[in-house]
Amino acid sequence: MSVSGQESTPAASEPQPRGARIRGDKPIDQAEAAERFLAAPRHQKLHDERLWTLRQRRDGEMWNMPEWEEMRALASAIKEHTLTHLDTYLEMFEAKAKANGVVVHWARDAAEHNAIVADVLTRRGAKTLVKSKSMLTEECGLREHLTNAGIEVVETDLGERIQQLDSEDPSHIVVPAVHKLRGDVAKVFAATLGSDPSDDDPHHLAEVQRETTRVLTLKAEAGMTGCNFLVAETGCVVVCTNEGNADLCANVPDLHIVSVGIEKLVPRLEDLAVFVRMLSRSALGSPITQYTSHFRGPRAGSEMHVVLVDNGRSERLGMDEFWTSLKCIRCGACMNTCPVYRRSGGLSYGATYSGPIGLIIDPTFNSRKYSSLPYASSLNGSCTNVCPVKINIHEQIYAWRKALVRDGETPFVKRAAMKAAGAILARPALYRATIQGANTALAKLPRFVIYNGLNAWGKHRETPSPRTETFHQWFKKNRGGGA
Ligand code: SF4
Question: Does the pTM exceed 0.85?
Protein backbone atom coordinates (compact mmCIF):
# COMPACT_ATOMS: atom_id res chain seq x y z
CA MET A 1 0.00 0.00 0.00
CA SER A 2 1.27 3.48 -0.63
CA VAL A 3 0.31 7.06 0.02
CA SER A 4 1.51 9.50 -2.62
CA GLY A 5 0.82 12.65 -0.56
CA GLN A 6 0.48 16.18 -1.85
CA GLU A 7 4.01 17.26 -2.77
CA SER A 8 3.86 20.48 -4.73
CA THR A 9 7.51 20.72 -5.71
CA PRO A 10 9.49 18.43 -8.00
CA ALA A 11 12.57 16.35 -7.13
CA ALA A 12 13.63 16.54 -3.52
CA SER A 13 16.56 18.85 -2.94
CA GLU A 14 16.56 18.11 0.77
CA PRO A 15 18.55 14.93 1.52
CA GLN A 16 16.46 12.13 2.92
CA PRO A 17 17.08 11.76 6.66
CA ARG A 18 18.17 8.25 7.62
CA GLY A 19 17.07 6.19 10.61
CA ALA A 20 18.52 5.41 14.02
CA ARG A 21 22.12 4.26 14.24
CA ILE A 22 22.22 0.60 15.21
CA ARG A 23 25.21 -0.41 17.34
CA GLY A 24 24.67 -4.07 18.21
CA ASP A 25 22.67 -4.41 21.41
CA LYS A 26 23.47 -0.90 22.64
CA PRO A 27 20.37 1.18 23.46
CA ILE A 28 18.84 2.88 20.42
CA ASP A 29 19.07 6.68 20.58
CA GLN A 30 15.61 7.45 19.22
CA ALA A 31 15.83 11.13 20.20
CA GLU A 32 19.01 11.60 18.15
CA ALA A 33 17.44 10.07 15.02
CA ALA A 34 14.24 12.05 15.60
CA GLU A 35 16.26 15.24 15.81
CA ARG A 36 17.75 14.52 12.37
CA PHE A 37 14.27 13.87 10.95
CA LEU A 38 13.00 17.12 12.42
CA ALA A 39 15.96 18.92 10.85
CA ALA A 40 14.61 17.93 7.39
CA PRO A 41 11.51 20.17 7.29
CA ARG A 42 10.10 19.04 3.93
CA HIS A 43 10.25 15.38 4.90
CA GLN A 44 8.94 16.02 8.35
CA LYS A 45 6.03 18.16 7.16
CA LEU A 46 4.91 15.76 4.46
CA HIS A 47 5.23 12.76 6.74
CA ASP A 48 3.10 14.47 9.36
CA GLU A 49 0.49 15.55 6.79
CA ARG A 50 0.25 12.15 5.08
CA LEU A 51 -0.31 10.30 8.31
CA TRP A 52 -2.71 12.87 9.67
CA THR A 53 -4.72 12.51 6.45
CA LEU A 54 -4.97 8.77 7.11
CA ARG A 55 -6.08 9.47 10.66
CA GLN A 56 -8.79 11.85 9.43
CA ARG A 57 -10.00 9.40 6.80
CA ARG A 58 -10.18 6.76 9.50
CA ASP A 59 -12.29 9.10 11.60
CA GLY A 60 -14.63 9.62 8.64
CA GLU A 61 -15.13 5.86 8.28
CA MET A 62 -15.71 5.56 12.01
CA TRP A 63 -18.47 8.20 11.95
CA ASN A 64 -20.08 6.35 9.04
CA MET A 65 -20.44 3.23 11.17
CA PRO A 66 -22.75 3.84 14.14
CA GLU A 67 -21.82 0.41 15.51
CA TRP A 68 -18.08 1.28 15.55
CA GLU A 69 -17.61 1.05 19.32
CA GLU A 70 -19.62 -2.18 19.45
CA MET A 71 -17.36 -3.59 16.71
CA ARG A 72 -14.22 -2.60 18.63
CA ALA A 73 -15.51 -4.30 21.75
CA LEU A 74 -16.42 -7.40 19.75
CA ALA A 75 -13.05 -7.50 17.97
CA SER A 76 -11.26 -7.15 21.30
CA ALA A 77 -13.36 -9.90 22.89
CA ILE A 78 -12.79 -12.31 19.98
CA LYS A 79 -9.04 -11.75 20.22
CA GLU A 80 -9.10 -12.19 23.99
CA HIS A 81 -11.00 -15.45 23.66
CA THR A 82 -8.64 -16.71 20.93
CA LEU A 83 -5.47 -15.80 22.82
CA THR A 84 -6.70 -17.50 25.98
CA HIS A 85 -7.47 -20.67 23.96
CA LEU A 86 -4.56 -20.37 21.57
CA ASP A 87 -3.40 -23.97 21.83
CA THR A 88 -6.86 -25.30 20.93
CA TYR A 89 -7.27 -23.02 17.91
CA LEU A 90 -3.72 -23.58 16.66
CA GLU A 91 -4.26 -27.32 16.67
CA MET A 92 -7.65 -26.89 15.00
CA PHE A 93 -6.03 -24.76 12.29
CA GLU A 94 -3.23 -27.26 11.77
CA ALA A 95 -5.64 -30.20 11.41
CA LYS A 96 -7.87 -28.33 8.93
CA ALA A 97 -4.96 -26.95 6.89
CA LYS A 98 -3.38 -30.41 6.64
CA ALA A 99 -6.71 -31.85 5.54
CA ASN A 100 -6.76 -29.14 2.84
CA GLY A 101 -3.38 -30.35 1.55
CA VAL A 102 -1.21 -27.67 3.18
CA VAL A 103 2.15 -28.57 4.75
CA VAL A 104 2.22 -26.98 8.23
CA HIS A 105 5.51 -26.15 9.98
CA TRP A 106 6.13 -24.84 13.49
CA ALA A 107 8.98 -22.42 14.18
CA ARG A 108 10.06 -21.62 17.74
CA ASP A 109 12.10 -18.58 16.77
CA ALA A 110 13.44 -16.50 13.88
CA ALA A 111 16.36 -18.86 13.21
CA GLU A 112 14.06 -21.87 12.96
CA HIS A 113 11.66 -19.95 10.71
CA ASN A 114 14.45 -18.92 8.35
CA ALA A 115 15.88 -22.45 8.28
CA ILE A 116 12.45 -23.96 7.46
CA VAL A 117 11.85 -21.54 4.59
CA ALA A 118 15.36 -22.06 3.21
CA ASP A 119 14.89 -25.82 3.43
CA VAL A 120 11.56 -25.78 1.59
CA LEU A 121 13.10 -23.66 -1.16
CA THR A 122 16.23 -25.79 -1.41
CA ARG A 123 14.28 -29.05 -1.64
CA ARG A 124 12.37 -27.58 -4.58
CA GLY A 125 15.57 -26.20 -6.11
CA ALA A 126 14.09 -22.69 -6.01
CA LYS A 127 16.61 -19.87 -6.42
CA THR A 128 14.19 -16.97 -6.85
CA LEU A 129 11.44 -15.92 -4.46
CA VAL A 130 8.89 -13.16 -4.92
CA LYS A 131 7.14 -12.04 -1.81
CA SER A 132 4.47 -9.70 -0.55
CA LYS A 133 4.82 -7.50 2.51
CA SER A 134 5.27 -9.28 5.81
CA MET A 135 6.47 -7.65 9.03
CA LEU A 136 7.14 -11.10 10.44
CA THR A 137 9.78 -11.81 7.80
CA GLU A 138 11.33 -8.42 8.66
CA GLU A 139 11.27 -9.42 12.33
CA CYS A 140 13.05 -12.69 11.45
CA GLY A 141 15.59 -11.15 9.06
CA LEU A 142 14.51 -13.63 6.38
CA ARG A 143 15.65 -11.68 3.34
CA GLU A 144 19.23 -11.43 4.57
CA HIS A 145 19.24 -15.12 5.49
CA LEU A 146 18.02 -16.23 2.07
CA THR A 147 20.30 -13.83 0.22
CA ASN A 148 23.27 -15.28 2.10
CA ALA A 149 22.06 -18.73 1.04
CA GLY A 150 22.17 -17.66 -2.63
CA ILE A 151 18.41 -17.16 -3.07
CA GLU A 152 17.24 -13.98 -4.77
CA VAL A 153 14.37 -12.33 -2.91
CA VAL A 154 12.19 -9.69 -4.58
CA GLU A 155 9.66 -7.61 -2.67
CA THR A 156 6.57 -6.91 -4.77
CA ASP A 157 4.66 -4.40 -2.63
CA LEU A 158 5.47 -0.95 -4.05
CA GLY A 159 6.55 0.63 -0.75
CA GLU A 160 8.43 -2.46 0.37
CA ARG A 161 10.22 -2.69 -3.00
CA ILE A 162 11.30 0.94 -2.71
CA GLN A 163 12.70 0.19 0.73
CA GLN A 164 14.45 -2.96 -0.45
CA LEU A 165 16.10 -1.11 -3.33
CA ASP A 166 17.16 1.66 -0.92
CA SER A 167 18.54 -0.88 1.62
CA GLU A 168 16.23 0.49 4.30
CA ASP A 169 13.72 -1.25 6.55
CA PRO A 170 10.03 -0.37 6.27
CA SER A 171 9.30 2.77 8.28
CA HIS A 172 5.59 1.98 8.77
CA ILE A 173 3.78 -1.36 8.97
CA VAL A 174 1.18 -0.41 6.33
CA VAL A 175 2.92 2.25 4.22
CA PRO A 176 6.60 1.24 4.32
CA ALA A 177 8.05 4.20 2.38
CA VAL A 178 5.78 6.92 3.76
CA HIS A 179 8.78 8.88 5.05
CA LYS A 180 10.16 9.41 1.54
CA LEU A 181 9.46 12.27 -0.83
CA ARG A 182 8.73 11.27 -4.41
CA GLY A 183 12.09 12.78 -5.41
CA ASP A 184 13.75 10.31 -3.04
CA VAL A 185 11.96 7.45 -4.83
CA ALA A 186 12.97 8.81 -8.25
CA LYS A 187 16.60 8.81 -7.09
CA VAL A 188 16.41 5.25 -5.78
CA PHE A 189 14.77 3.95 -8.97
CA ALA A 190 17.25 5.83 -11.15
CA ALA A 191 20.18 4.31 -9.26
CA THR A 192 18.81 0.76 -9.15
CA LEU A 193 16.39 0.40 -12.07
CA GLY A 194 17.86 2.90 -14.51
CA SER A 195 14.82 5.20 -14.71
CA ASP A 196 14.94 8.96 -15.32
CA PRO A 197 16.08 10.66 -12.06
CA SER A 198 14.22 13.86 -12.95
CA ASP A 199 10.87 12.09 -13.43
CA ASP A 200 9.23 11.96 -10.02
CA ASP A 201 5.64 11.60 -11.22
CA PRO A 202 4.12 9.03 -8.81
CA HIS A 203 2.25 7.28 -11.65
CA HIS A 204 5.43 6.92 -13.70
CA LEU A 205 7.33 5.66 -10.67
CA ALA A 206 4.64 3.08 -9.93
CA GLU A 207 4.79 2.01 -13.59
CA VAL A 208 8.58 1.56 -13.40
CA GLN A 209 8.13 -0.64 -10.36
CA ARG A 210 5.36 -2.65 -11.97
CA GLU A 211 7.25 -3.23 -15.24
CA THR A 212 10.49 -4.25 -13.54
CA THR A 213 8.89 -6.44 -10.87
CA ARG A 214 6.23 -8.17 -12.97
CA VAL A 215 8.81 -9.94 -15.15
CA LEU A 216 10.55 -11.21 -12.02
CA THR A 217 7.23 -12.48 -10.67
CA LEU A 218 6.47 -14.34 -13.88
CA LYS A 219 9.72 -16.27 -13.80
CA ALA A 220 10.04 -16.73 -10.01
CA GLU A 221 10.34 -20.29 -8.75
CA ALA A 222 8.59 -19.61 -5.44
CA GLY A 223 6.21 -17.10 -3.91
CA MET A 224 5.76 -16.01 -0.33
CA THR A 225 3.04 -14.08 1.42
CA GLY A 226 2.45 -12.89 4.93
CA CYS A 227 -0.97 -13.37 6.45
CA ASN A 228 -3.48 -11.05 8.07
CA PHE A 229 -5.72 -13.73 9.56
CA LEU A 230 -5.75 -17.50 9.95
CA VAL A 231 -9.21 -19.03 10.27
CA ALA A 232 -9.08 -22.03 12.61
CA GLU A 233 -12.36 -23.68 11.56
CA THR A 234 -11.51 -23.69 7.84
CA GLY A 235 -7.70 -23.85 7.87
CA CYS A 236 -7.73 -20.78 5.62
CA VAL A 237 -5.02 -18.13 5.21
CA VAL A 238 -6.45 -14.65 4.61
CA VAL A 239 -4.27 -11.94 3.03
CA CYS A 240 -5.43 -8.33 2.54
CA THR A 241 -3.62 -6.06 0.05
CA ASN A 242 -4.40 -3.11 -2.17
CA GLU A 243 -2.02 -3.94 -4.99
CA GLY A 244 -2.93 -7.56 -5.70
CA ASN A 245 0.74 -8.47 -5.46
CA ALA A 246 0.14 -11.14 -2.82
CA ASP A 247 -2.22 -12.92 -5.20
CA LEU A 248 0.45 -12.97 -7.88
CA CYS A 249 3.08 -14.27 -5.43
CA ALA A 250 0.69 -16.99 -4.25
CA ASN A 251 -0.66 -18.01 -7.64
CA VAL A 252 2.03 -17.59 -10.28
CA PRO A 253 4.84 -19.84 -8.96
CA ASP A 254 4.15 -23.49 -8.13
CA LEU A 255 5.29 -23.05 -4.55
CA HIS A 256 3.51 -20.79 -2.05
CA ILE A 257 5.00 -20.29 1.42
CA VAL A 258 3.09 -18.38 4.09
CA SER A 259 4.88 -16.94 7.14
CA VAL A 260 2.55 -16.13 9.99
CA GLY A 261 2.75 -15.31 13.71
CA ILE A 262 0.74 -17.63 15.95
CA GLU A 263 -1.36 -14.73 17.24
CA LYS A 264 -3.01 -14.12 13.85
CA LEU A 265 -5.77 -16.66 14.49
CA VAL A 266 -9.50 -16.12 14.57
CA PRO A 267 -11.74 -19.05 15.47
CA ARG A 268 -14.48 -18.85 12.83
CA LEU A 269 -15.16 -17.40 9.40
CA GLU A 270 -17.93 -15.39 11.03
CA ASP A 271 -15.34 -13.72 13.30
CA LEU A 272 -13.24 -12.78 10.31
CA ALA A 273 -15.96 -10.43 9.06
CA VAL A 274 -15.51 -8.23 12.12
CA PHE A 275 -11.79 -7.78 11.46
CA VAL A 276 -12.10 -7.30 7.71
CA ARG A 277 -14.53 -4.45 8.41
CA MET A 278 -12.17 -2.85 10.92
CA LEU A 279 -8.74 -3.35 9.30
CA SER A 280 -8.76 -1.13 6.24
CA ARG A 281 -10.98 1.50 7.84
CA SER A 282 -8.47 1.83 10.69
CA ALA A 283 -5.39 1.58 8.48
CA LEU A 284 -6.11 3.81 5.49
CA GLY A 285 -9.61 5.11 6.10
CA SER A 286 -11.00 3.06 3.22
CA PRO A 287 -13.99 0.74 3.66
CA ILE A 288 -12.15 -2.38 2.48
CA THR A 289 -8.84 -3.48 0.99
CA GLN A 290 -8.93 -3.99 -2.79
CA TYR A 291 -8.03 -7.67 -2.41
CA THR A 292 -9.06 -9.89 0.49
CA SER A 293 -7.89 -13.33 -0.61
CA HIS A 294 -8.55 -16.65 1.10
CA PHE A 295 -5.92 -19.33 0.41
CA ARG A 296 -7.29 -22.67 1.47
CA GLY A 297 -4.91 -25.14 -0.16
CA PRO A 298 -2.44 -25.71 -3.00
CA ARG A 299 -3.53 -25.54 -6.62
CA ALA A 300 -3.31 -28.78 -8.60
CA GLY A 301 0.34 -29.61 -9.16
CA SER A 302 1.67 -27.03 -6.72
CA GLU A 303 2.68 -26.91 -3.03
CA MET A 304 1.51 -24.69 -0.20
CA HIS A 305 3.38 -24.40 3.12
CA VAL A 306 2.37 -22.47 6.23
CA VAL A 307 5.05 -21.66 8.82
CA LEU A 308 3.52 -20.89 12.22
CA VAL A 309 6.02 -18.72 14.09
CA ASP A 310 6.32 -18.14 17.81
CA ASN A 311 9.48 -16.00 18.13
CA GLY A 312 8.72 -14.68 21.62
CA ARG A 313 4.94 -14.61 21.32
CA SER A 314 4.32 -17.38 23.89
CA GLU A 315 6.56 -15.54 26.30
CA ARG A 316 4.64 -12.30 25.71
CA LEU A 317 1.39 -14.18 26.27
CA GLY A 318 2.67 -14.92 29.77
CA MET A 319 3.40 -11.26 30.58
CA ASP A 320 0.59 -9.96 32.78
CA GLU A 321 0.90 -6.36 31.65
CA PHE A 322 1.73 -6.85 27.98
CA TRP A 323 -0.08 -9.96 26.72
CA THR A 324 -2.99 -8.02 25.21
CA SER A 325 -0.55 -6.44 22.73
CA LEU A 326 -0.93 -9.80 20.92
CA LYS A 327 -4.41 -8.66 19.87
CA CYS A 328 -2.79 -6.24 17.40
CA ILE A 329 -3.99 -6.60 13.81
CA ARG A 330 -1.17 -4.35 12.49
CA CYS A 331 -3.44 -1.63 11.12
CA GLY A 332 -1.02 1.20 11.92
CA ALA A 333 -3.75 3.53 13.24
CA CYS A 334 -1.82 4.11 16.48
CA MET A 335 1.18 5.29 14.43
CA ASN A 336 -0.89 7.60 12.24
CA THR A 337 -2.29 9.41 15.24
CA CYS A 338 0.86 9.53 17.40
CA PRO A 339 2.39 13.04 17.51
CA VAL A 340 5.85 11.64 18.24
CA TYR A 341 5.72 9.13 15.38
CA ARG A 342 4.37 11.64 12.89
CA ARG A 343 7.20 14.05 13.64
CA SER A 344 10.09 11.66 14.05
CA GLY A 345 9.53 9.01 11.34
CA GLY A 346 9.37 5.26 11.83
CA LEU A 347 13.05 4.60 11.17
CA SER A 348 14.04 6.69 14.20
CA TYR A 349 12.89 3.81 16.41
CA GLY A 350 15.61 1.50 15.03
CA ALA A 351 13.30 -1.51 15.33
CA THR A 352 11.01 -3.65 13.18
CA TYR A 353 7.92 -2.25 14.90
CA SER A 354 7.75 1.49 15.42
CA GLY A 355 5.19 3.90 16.81
CA PRO A 356 3.08 3.20 19.90
CA ILE A 357 2.63 -0.56 19.36
CA GLY A 358 6.37 -0.86 18.71
CA LEU A 359 7.10 0.72 22.09
CA ILE A 360 5.35 -2.26 23.68
CA ILE A 361 6.51 -5.06 21.38
CA ASP A 362 10.17 -4.14 20.83
CA PRO A 363 11.33 -4.30 24.48
CA THR A 364 9.86 -7.82 24.71
CA PHE A 365 12.55 -8.85 22.20
CA ASN A 366 15.43 -6.96 23.84
CA SER A 367 14.73 -4.73 26.83
CA ARG A 368 18.21 -3.17 26.85
CA LYS A 369 18.45 -2.34 23.16
CA TYR A 370 14.96 -0.84 23.08
CA SER A 371 15.00 0.67 26.58
CA SER A 372 14.66 4.25 25.31
CA LEU A 373 11.60 3.57 23.16
CA PRO A 374 8.86 3.65 25.84
CA TYR A 375 9.94 7.25 26.48
CA ALA A 376 9.15 8.22 22.87
CA SER A 377 5.55 8.97 23.82
CA SER A 378 3.63 11.83 25.38
CA LEU A 379 1.21 9.26 26.89
CA ASN A 380 -1.69 11.30 25.50
CA GLY A 381 -3.76 8.13 24.94
CA SER A 382 -4.76 8.88 21.34
CA CYS A 383 -3.26 5.52 20.29
CA THR A 384 -5.53 3.71 22.73
CA ASN A 385 -8.55 5.64 21.45
CA VAL A 386 -8.05 4.65 17.82
CA CYS A 387 -6.99 1.03 18.32
CA PRO A 388 -9.64 -1.21 16.68
CA VAL A 389 -8.99 -4.04 19.14
CA LYS A 390 -8.95 -1.77 22.20
CA ILE A 391 -5.38 -2.39 23.36
CA ASN A 392 -4.62 -0.04 26.29
CA ILE A 393 -1.48 1.06 24.46
CA HIS A 394 -0.49 4.13 26.46
CA GLU A 395 -0.97 2.31 29.74
CA GLN A 396 1.30 -0.49 28.56
CA ILE A 397 3.92 2.06 27.47
CA TYR A 398 3.81 3.51 30.98
CA ALA A 399 4.03 -0.01 32.44
CA TRP A 400 7.20 -0.57 30.38
CA ARG A 401 8.75 2.56 31.88
CA LYS A 402 8.14 1.18 35.36
CA ALA A 403 9.48 -2.25 34.37
CA LEU A 404 12.64 -0.73 32.86
CA VAL A 405 13.32 1.32 35.99
CA ARG A 406 12.71 -1.77 38.14
CA ASP A 407 15.13 -3.82 36.02
CA GLY A 408 17.82 -1.12 36.01
CA GLU A 409 17.51 -0.57 32.23
CA THR A 410 17.46 3.22 32.41
CA PRO A 411 20.56 5.41 31.95
CA PHE A 412 22.60 6.23 35.08
CA VAL A 413 21.98 10.01 34.75
CA LYS A 414 18.22 9.49 34.62
CA ARG A 415 18.30 7.13 37.59
CA ALA A 416 20.41 9.57 39.64
CA ALA A 417 18.14 12.50 38.71
CA MET A 418 14.99 10.57 39.68
CA LYS A 419 16.58 9.49 42.95
CA ALA A 420 17.47 13.09 43.78
CA ALA A 421 13.96 14.25 42.81
CA GLY A 422 12.46 11.52 45.02
CA ALA A 423 14.57 12.64 47.99
CA ILE A 424 13.52 16.27 47.53
CA LEU A 425 9.82 15.53 46.98
CA ALA A 426 9.74 13.38 50.13
CA ARG A 427 10.86 16.31 52.36
CA PRO A 428 8.51 19.34 52.23
CA ALA A 429 11.01 21.80 53.75
CA LEU A 430 13.76 20.71 51.35
CA TYR A 431 11.29 20.85 48.45
CA ARG A 432 10.33 24.47 49.24
CA ALA A 433 13.93 25.54 49.63
CA THR A 434 14.87 23.84 46.33
CA ILE A 435 12.01 25.51 44.45
CA GLN A 436 12.96 28.88 45.89
CA GLY A 437 16.60 28.33 44.96
CA ALA A 438 15.71 27.11 41.45
CA ASN A 439 13.45 30.12 40.81
CA THR A 440 16.22 32.50 41.87
CA ALA A 441 18.82 30.63 39.80
CA LEU A 442 16.59 30.55 36.69
CA ALA A 443 15.95 34.28 36.96
CA LYS A 444 19.59 35.26 37.51
CA LEU A 445 21.89 32.73 35.81
CA PRO A 446 23.05 33.37 32.24
CA ARG A 447 21.35 31.13 29.66
CA PHE A 448 24.46 29.10 28.76
CA VAL A 449 24.77 27.90 32.37
CA ILE A 450 21.32 26.27 32.16
CA TYR A 451 21.24 25.24 28.49
CA ASN A 452 24.47 23.42 27.77
CA GLY A 453 25.60 19.98 26.67
CA LEU A 454 25.20 18.60 30.18
CA ASN A 455 21.50 19.44 30.30
CA ALA A 456 19.92 16.78 28.04
CA TRP A 457 16.42 17.84 29.14
CA GLY A 458 16.99 21.43 28.05
CA LYS A 459 18.12 20.33 24.59
CA HIS A 460 14.54 19.86 23.49
CA ARG A 461 12.57 22.03 25.90
CA GLU A 462 12.33 25.53 27.32
CA THR A 463 12.25 25.77 31.09
CA PRO A 464 9.12 27.55 32.35
CA SER A 465 9.66 31.20 33.40
CA PRO A 466 10.58 31.45 37.09
CA ARG A 467 7.77 32.58 39.40
CA THR A 468 8.27 35.36 41.89
CA GLU A 469 5.99 33.54 44.32
CA THR A 470 5.30 29.82 44.76
CA PHE A 471 1.76 28.46 45.02
CA HIS A 472 2.48 27.55 48.63
CA GLN A 473 3.46 31.16 49.42
CA TRP A 474 0.40 32.49 47.58
CA PHE A 475 -1.93 30.08 49.39
CA LYS A 476 -0.48 31.00 52.76
CA LYS A 477 -0.82 34.69 52.03
CA ASN A 478 -4.34 34.59 50.53
CA ARG A 479 -6.04 31.68 52.22
CA GLY A 480 -4.13 31.49 55.45
CA GLY A 481 -3.37 27.80 54.95
CA GLY A 482 -0.71 26.38 57.18
CA ALA A 483 0.29 23.35 55.10
S1 SF4 B 1 -1.96 -1.58 18.36
FE2 SF4 B 1 -4.04 -1.31 17.62
S3 SF4 B 1 -3.94 0.61 16.46
FE4 SF4 B 1 -1.82 -0.08 16.70
S5 SF4 B 1 -1.37 -1.29 14.88
FE6 SF4 B 1 -2.12 -2.71 16.43
S7 SF4 B 1 -4.31 -2.89 16.08
FE8 SF4 B 1 -3.62 -1.08 15.00
Answer: yes
Write out pLDDT tens, residues 90-102.
999 999 999 999 9
Which ligand 1 atom is the nearest neighbour of the CA of 331? 8
**Residue of 326, 329, 364, 384 to mutate, ligand 1, most atoms within 8 A of C-beta:** 329
- Ligand 1 mean position, distance from CA 336 (Å): 10
Close Cβ partners of 82 (under 8 Å, ≥ 6 residues apart)? 89, 265, 266, 267
User: Counting atoms of ligand 1 from 1, which one is nearest the CA of 383?
Assistant: 3
For residue 291, what are the CA distances in angstroms to 107, 242, 323?
Answer: 28, 6, 30
Ligand 1 atom 6 nearest Cα: 328
**What span, in angstroms and rounded, lies between the C-alpha atoms of 223 and 17?**
33
What DSSP element (H or E) covers 257?
strand 255-261
User: Residue 398 CB: number of other CB atoms within 10 A?
Assistant: 15
- How far, in Å, from the CA of 48 to the mean position of ligand 1? 18
Alpha-carbon distance of 474 to 402, in angstroms, equals 34
Report the nearest atom of ligand 1 relative to the CA of 282.
8
Q: Which ligand 1 atom is at minimum distance from the Cα of 335? A: 4
Q: 126, exposed or middle or buried, with CB in 10 Å at 0-12, 13-18, 19+?
A: buried
- What is the C-alpha R_g of the chain? 25
| H-helix segments, 285-323 | 313-317
What's the gap in Å between 356 CA and the centre of ligand 1? Answer: 8
Residues 25-76: tens digit of each pLDDT: 999 999 999 999 999 999 999 999 999 999 999 999 999 999 999 999 999 9
